[in-house]
Each structure stands twice: as structure tokens, then as C-alpha cells.
Amino acid sequence: MHYQITGKQIDIGAALQTHVETELSAMLEKYAGRPTDANVIFSKSGHEHVCEAVVHLSTGLNCTAKAKATEIYAAFEACAEKMDKQLRRYKRRLKDHHKERTTPVELMGASSYILAGTEDGADDTAEPDTLQPIIVAEMETKIPSLSVGEAVMQMELAGAPVLVFRNEKKDGVNVVYRRDDGNIGWIDP
User: Fold this and answer.
1) Is 83 strand, coil or helix?
2) Is the pTM value of this prediction over 0.70?
């Protein structure tokens, strides 16, 4: 397994890197089975240390966790605890997912755009000069080909509010999202 442990504007010592590798290896061995790589990023936000971890599984699913604490080791421990809880919750489904899927999740390329929003304090009643939005950035993104259950699991593991995916059964683009009432919404055009 490949580990990438970095710090944003802070120095990460060898002892912390070794600690992160051993703790993540032990946790992932219990649940995931075949993780391919892990990215752990430490940063500082005010007086707190922030730890963000993303683990890529061989089937194409990702598990994401983020935590803050006043000490850097405590931030990692809280982040690892969140990831452990997510993986424990989905352990059976991950194992079933590994058995059913012999090949990695198929990814389809798509364009992703970031559009300029309205400025704070701008008059919302004024008509814009044009109805064409201003494109701030253009990127390439990947849309996974999943079942609805796998899409919900991926959204939960990634901690994302929404996930766009290609439905394996109907071969169309679908969306799952977290509703305000705590339930999951599914859009199937």
C-alpha cells in the first residue's frame, strides 16, 4: 500500500509518519481488505491542527475523514476514529462489494466547471448584463459506474452531500444526495 503523508505549511516528522502508517495499516487490514493508497494531509487552522485522510480502495471506492484537535497526534487519532467508524458501519457491504465486483469501478470522464457566484452585498434585483455565467475554472472529473446502493455507500464513506454516478442497471446518469431531513434522495431521470 502506498502512503502519502504531507503537511500544509507545517513540518511532519518521521515519528508522526511512522505512527500514521502503522495505525492506518492496522485499521484498514480489519475492514477494507485491498486498499491501494492513502493520502493524509496535516494543516493548521488557527490554534488547531487539522487532519484530512482519504483512502482509495482497489474497487474504486474512497473513504474520507477529517478532524481537528489542539495537538497533531490527537487530530490524527480523531480522524482515524471517524474513518474506523465509517468502515466498521460498511464492513459487510464492503466485503460483499469486493465479492460481487471482480474488476474495479468503471469511470467515465466528464467536464466539471466552477461558475462565478454573485458578489456579497450585490443588488439581487438588478438584471445581469448577460445570462451566460462566468466560468472561473474548468476541470476533468470522473463519474463512477455504480449501483444505487454502492453510490449511497460511496457518498457516506466520502462524507459528501451529493454524488453523481452512472447507474449500472439502467446505464443513465443518476444523483444521490443527503436531504435536509436526514434521508437520502435519489434522482433517476
Assistant:
1) helix
2) no
